[in-house]
Design a protein that fits this description.
InterPro entries: AAA+_ATPase (IPR003593), ABC_transp_ATP-bind (IPR050319), ABC_transporter-like_ATP-bd (IPR003439), ABC_transporter-like_CS (IPR017871), Oligopep_ABC_C (IPR013563), P-loop_NTPase (IPR027417)
Family: Belongs to the ABC transporter superfamily.
CATH class of one domain: Alpha Beta
Largest sheet: 8 strands, mixed
CATH topology of one domain: Rossmann fold
Radius of gyration: 21 Å
Order of helices and strands: EEEHEEHEHHHHEHEHEEHHEEH
Keywords: ATP-binding, Nucleotide-binding, Transport
GO molecular function: ATP binding
Bound molecules: iron/sulfur cluster, magnesium ion
Shape: globular
Pfam family, one: oligo_HPY
Number of helices: 11
Length: about 325
């Protein structure tokens, strides 16, 4: 496969002071994660709040320094890069955030907000060229020239997110990591922004990592989806297999809670006991074992490996521990 991003063994641990014992405690926000993103696809990452999905997004583009692991972007290992070495990489990978209001400087006009990355990266040479480029970017996201002289507070949430997207696009990135980009918007506006993102992806050959807690939103936009629980992926696959045939007990429970349009279609809601445990000293073995309706003895001590259960469908769960699934997963990893 033509991978734009390959992540291996990625960890994002935060030491916690004031622990009782001799051993230091860590919040394991991202705990030994492996995944790939193929060029031109939308890879959706879903999970409840606190599962580590936002942290994962930030550590991939090194807004936070990963504790350990490898991040290969467009063939280049960037995990150990210094901020200076990251500068040219910032042209390849950009982030779009949930709350455009918080991520846009309120004292800057939209023109200056969108122009800033062009100037920082030396992508335009004259004031005229910059202005022209800004207008072009605003039009791309469905805004107009006259919006350029306005300030973020004069915009609706959807318009502000369009500005955030225009700013991200200014450097002509290959990869956009969008962290809950539509979660703060009204449902009607959500689909407009999602459609815009789809359009831009086609027009500009983009690849997205789309992080969200809303399963329907992720299904709508993604080609493949990874489900996270307590700092790990528990299942990943093409969206059709994953949504129609979820195999991990956690994914099954999550999806059973999504309302379906056809009220006659039978679906039994799986209610999980308790809340997602703390990422500080998470459960041993399979981290989901404390809530899993299918928990077996070995789940309490042994972390499940990755099993291949379909053409493009993987699951981390002992229920799928067969020789064949193991072999397939190894082969897929080396492909
Ligand atoms: Fe449940 Fe065990 Fe599978 Fe974990 S490994 S999801 S506890 S059955
Ligand atoms: Mg988040």
């Amino acid at each position: 496969a033509d991978n734009l991003l390959v992540v291996r063994g990625l960890k994002q641990y935060y030491p916690v002071k004031g622990g009782l014992g001799k051993e230091p405690s860590y919040v394991k926000a991202v705990d030994n994660v492996d995944f790939e993103v193929r060029r031109g696809e939308v890879f959706g990452i879903v999970g409840e709040s606190g599962c580590g999905k936002s942290t994962l997004g930030k550590s991939i583009c090194k807004l936070i320094e990963p504790t350990e692991g490898s991040i290969v972007l467009d063939g280049e290992e960037i995990s150990k890069y210094t901020p200076k070495q990251m500068r040219p990489i910032r042209k390849k990978v950009q982030m779009v955030f949930q709350d455009p209001y918080a991520s846009l400087n309120p004292r800057m006009s939209v023109r200056d907000i969108v122009a800033e990355p062009l100037i920082i990266h030396g992508l335009t040479k004259t004031r005229e060229e910059t202005d022209k480029k800004v207008v072009e970017l605003l039009r791309r996201v469905g805004l107009d020239d006259y919006h350029a002289n306005r300030y973020p507070h004069e915009f609706s949430g959807g318009q502000r997110q369009r500005v955030g997207i225009a700013r991200a696009l200014a450097v002509q990135p290959q990869l956009i990591i969008a962290d809950e980009p539509v979660s703060a918007l009204d449902v009607s506006i959500q689909s407009q922004v999602l459609n815009l993102m789809n359009q831009l992806k086609r027009d500009m050959n983009l690849t997205y990592i789309f992080v969200a807690h809303d399963l329907s939103v992720v299904e709508h936009i993604s080609d493949r989806v990874g489900v996270m629980y307590l700092g790990n992926f528990v299942e990943e696959g093409d969206k059709y297999s994953l949504y129609q045939n979820p195999l991990h007990p956690y994914t099954q429970a999550l999806l059973s809670a999504v309302p379906i349009p056809d009220p006659k279609a039978k679906k039994e809601r799986i209610i999980l006991e308790g809340n997602i445990p703390s990422a500080l000293n998470p459960p041993t073995g399979c981290k989901f074992h404390t809530r899993c309706p299918k928990c077996m003895e070995r789940c309490k001590t042994e972390a499940p490996q990755k099993y291949q259960v379909g053409d493009d469908h993987f699951v981390y769960c002992h229920l799928y521990d067969t020789e064949e699934a193991k072999k397939n997963a190894k082969a897929a990893e080396n492909a």
